[in-house]
Amino acid sequence: MATGIREHFAELPDPRQASGRRHRLGDILAISICAVICAAEQWSEIEEFGQAKEAWFRTFLRLAQGIPSEDTFRRVFAALDPEAFERCFISWIKAWIKALSGSSKGKLIPIDGKTLRHSFDRANGKVAIHRVSAWGSANGLCFGQLATEAKSNEITAIPKLLKLLDLEGATVTSDAIGCQKAIAAQIAEQGGDYVLALKENQVTLHEEVKLFLDHNIAAPSREFAIYSCQETDGDHGRVEIRRAWVTPAVDWFEDCGQWKGLKSFAAVECERDVGDKITCERRYFISSLDGTDAARIAQAVRNHWSVENNLHWSLDVSFHEDQSRIRKGHGAENFSRLRRIALNLLKQETTCRRGIKTKRLRAGWDEQYMCQVLQI
Q1: What is the pLDDT of residues 111-160, one digit of tens each?
Q2: What do you get for the CA distance between the two ends of the chain, in Å?
Q3: What is the pTM of this model?
Q4: What residue numbers bound the domain in which 7 lies?
Q5: Which residues fall within 8 angstroms of residue 148, CB to CB, at 6 or more apart?
Q6: Listed residue (88, 28, 36, 38) closest to 62, CA to CA
Q7: Quick check: is 260 in a domain?
Q8: Domain count of the chain?
Q9: For residue 270, how far is the Cα from the chain centroid?
């Protein structure tokens, strides 16, 4: 089922006592994935989907005790170890990427965070879950996700997530919160490159890079080489001009040696002309990529937003993730992972040239199409 899901999730530890198990964990997982593909958004809907499709499920699942109840789905996923679930998820994704393209070489992997807004539980003092995701912009796949620890932030979650990923030959992008010496070093040590955004969290580095690039962009000199590129596009009355300037001159920065693999500084500017309104924003980056290739760094910066546009947007609009009120135990985090499994499968199914919402509906209506999504 589903490009090796059975194989890669077979080692997922069952949180239940052996004596109390009426339903196999593999059956519970398979029914849940199929139900979420077909627009189920809560445990009761997963049970109802299972009941409606029981005859079809029996063609490839044992179901000795029938379809599990809503309470069984809720209890199992509330108790399931989310980190073990994630390890299985990433093992599955790695095998899928290898089958698709052979390796991560040359791939862009944006890292970004998202909060499950209704996962908080005031009565039990539980804050909303904030989760960090890795997105494969070329493959259109979610590579992995981890929740941040309570009273912590993305800085602690990003290294854990990176450790699970194959970064050999890939380029990792992150917003300013991921611009940390330890994170840059970890990416380099795992064989990857990085393009990290600068903001006020790295005050000295941000200000010095900004002053250096702004000065040399405005008044180029022979002492410091600046390479640039520009791209223009537009539609429906909107014109957007994107400019990038990159320099391999990093030795002047006093702390250069503390950033492992650092090879370039970059400024990326976006000018938008919409009607009578013109806006212009310039942002700054550090990178381990070649400081003479402005186009490559510009592409990495632009593609970073694919994690917002293709992952977070899809989860909110097509899967209604921000509206979910699942809260008990690890239920919210694990249901979020079910959504990502479903999204990956739906994005890779290309015979239906419709959006994710329509694909979900069709999978529920048409069992043959569901088999195409699952690749069985």
Answers
A1: 988 776 655 555 555 556 677 888 887 778 888 888 775 445 678 889 98
A2: 5
A3: 0.85
A4: 1-81+350-376
A5: 113, 129, 130, 131, 132, 154, 156, 157
A6: 28
A7: yes
A8: 2
A9: 24
